[in-house]
Amino acid sequence: MVNREKRDLARRLVEKFLACEITNDDFVNDYPCQEKEDRVIIAIYDRLWGFWDDRHTHTLTGTGKHKLNPEATALLERCIAFLNSDFEYEWPPLEWRSLSQALLRLIGFGKIADRRGDEWTQRVRGFGNWEVWPFIREEDLRS
Q1: Is-cis flag, bond preceding 134, omega within 30?
Q2: What is the CA 81 to chain-centroid distance, rounded?
Q3: What DSSP string describes 70-121?
Q4: Is 75 within 8 Å of 133 (Cβ atoms)?
Q5: Sign (positive/negative) of CA torsion 24, 101, 44, 38?
Q6: Host H or E run for residue 25
Q7: 2, 139, 6, 7: which is closest to 83 by C-alpha?
Q8: φ and ψ of 69, to 5 deg
Q9: Alpha-carbon distance 113 to 17, whole Å?
């Protein structure tokens, strides 16, 4: 089910985060991550989780460790486009984000956390075109 009000709020926040107009704390505090009916809201929050540091307030600046590479920028732009659409979210839940993932990152084992994310990605590749996530089909992205 598409929740237009929550999607619009989430879209505006992703746009502002990408444009470095808000910090990671602003994004996390204002994002509608309690939305249960429109699954893409939580899925995008979960997928973007790796773009902020829970210990430091920052923006996605053009320099430093929070600088986005072209692939990350494209992901955020696709999230914005999906949130602007009326497509239903068709991917399975992003099960690799969990407390254990956070603990692994916190104690310096980010590579293990990344490997778990990669393993999940490999399992779901049969559901659709992962390169256009959160869309499931390239033609949906292009429309």
Answers
A1: yes
A2: 13
A3: HHHHHHHHHHHHHHTS-PPP-SPP-TT-SHHHHHHHHTT-HHHHHHHHHHHH
A4: yes
A5: negative
A6: helix 24-30
A7: 7
A8: -85, 170
A9: 24
Scan for tokens 């709020």, then name that residue: 9
H or E element, residue 14: helix 4-18
CA distances from 55 to 102, 104, 105, 137 (A): 12, 14, 12, 36
pLDDT of residue 52: 79
Q: What's this model's pTM, rounded to 2 decimal places?
A: 0.82
Q: Give the list of residues 6+ apart from residue 128 with CB closer than 8 angstroms, or none.
A: 90, 91, 135, 136, 137
Distances (CA, A) of 5 to 10, 35, 65, 141: 9, 11, 33, 21
pLDDT in tens, the chain (143 residues): 999 999 999 999 999 999 999 999 999 999 998 888 999 999 999 888 888 777 788 888 766 777 888 999 999 999 999 999 999 999 887 665 555 666 666 677 777 777 776 776 677 777 888 899 999 999 999 98
